[in-house]
Amino acid sequence: MTGEWSIQDLAKAAKTTSRTLRHYGDVGLLEPSRIGSNGYRYYDQNALVRLQRVLLLRDLGLGLPAIAEVLRGERNTASALRSHLELLRQEQDRINRQIASVTTTLRKTEGGEQLMAEEVFDGFDHTQYKDEVIERWGKDAYERSDNWWKSMSDDDKRGFQQRQIDIATDFANARKAGLAADSDEVQAITQRQYDWITVGWGGKKPEACAFEGLGQMYVDDSRFTANYDDPHGPGTAAFIRDAMKVYADRM
């Protein structure tokens, strides 16, 4: 197979689904190079490179509208790839900082040392997820949270971050103690998680579906899974997800 790929072959090679590729086509991100008499979509090498760009930008946290805007502004493929290579190198640096941050957190947690918020969150920047947040929950949700964050003092920010560390640690300890996600003890921790998210959303309380969706994202999105599992042990993110679902079901 050279020069052209069916939608099934392309989906398999890109480790995605035909449904996703069709959706990309429907929103103007990835048009097929031709459609056969049987109605099947086929893609040439230009489409292959474009899909690579879409997936790379997706991995960087951009939402589909933002990706479309980036691609509309690019005409030279080689220049676009060079720009993206630089973004990947920046992302590599950020990930290396996250790895160092999680390593420090793990070492201090196992050694009983005091955690510092600056160390724990080195490499984590909430603004990099702007387009993703807007796509998921709307522009108002992002702006409300962003304005609230910018209004805080450095001490308040450290306190807010430390509060989440404490909540995640209590979740992990509850899981290790064998407590059930629907137990009173775990649901009390989940209430603190709900309150913490409410503060982060600028005082707007998440509805049940949004709260459950956030919990599911902790498992589905490897970035969030690592934030919980790496310092606290595999299964912590899933345990929090289960606890948040129970809480949402009871709302």
From TrEMBL:
The keyword Repressor is annotated on this UniProt entry: yes
GO molecular function, one term: DNA-binding transcription factor activity
Record-annotated HTH merR-type domain positions: 4-73
Keywords attached to this entry: DNA-binding, Repressor, Transcription, Transcription regulation
Record bears the keyword Cell cycle: no
InterPro entries in UniProt: DNA-bd_dom_put_sf, MerR-type_HTH_dom, MerR_fam, TipA-like_antibiotic-bd, TipAS_dom
Pfam family, one: TipAS
Protein name per UniProt: MerR family transcriptional regulator
Natural source organism: Antrihabitans cavernicola
